[in-house]
Amino acid sequence: MNARGALGRYGEDLAARLLTDAGMAVIERNWRCRAGEVDIVARDGDALVFCEVKTRRSDGFEHPMAAVTPVKAERLRRLAEIWLERHGGPPAGGVRIDLIGVIVPRRGAPVTEHARGVS
């Protein structure tokens, strides 16, 4: 795994911990199909949550959440539809797409930001 992959994996690990600490259950990580990948699928009560995780070093110019363009948001919606088709449809509590941004500074603790229902 290269440094970029390791940084992404670290951010996803932090995001999964953030979700479980918030009372959610992580169902799947890095679910893939031909259309792409969902970083984290979690259950929040009766709702199903599809999470995109973006991790950046603090010396970058762009906030991690700015990396989710309208095209990427549409891809996430399509991936959620495919996942639901393959896993029996949406739950009673509905479906939501969340975004978790992780900023990893050169020194100190990483900063995480969780935006619910972004798409």
Q: Would you kindly provide a written description of the structure presented here, covering whatever features stand out?
A:
30% of the residues lie in helices and 37% in strands. The chain has helices at residues 3-21, 70-86; strands at 25-33, 36-44, 47-57, 95-104, 111-115. A 5-stranded mixed sheet has the order 1-2-3-4-5, sandwiched between helices.
Question: What labels describe this entry?
Answer:
single chain; about 120 residues; alpha+beta; Trna Endonuclease, Chain: A, domain 1; 5-stranded mixed beta sheet; 2 helices; about 30% helix; globular; nucleic acid binding; UPF0102 protein ABR748_33600
Quick recap of the structure?
By secondary structure, the chain is an alpha+beta fold. The protein has helices spanning 3-21, 70-86; strands at residues 25-33, 36-44, 47-57, 95-104, 111-115. It has two helices and five strands; from the N terminus they run αβββαββ.
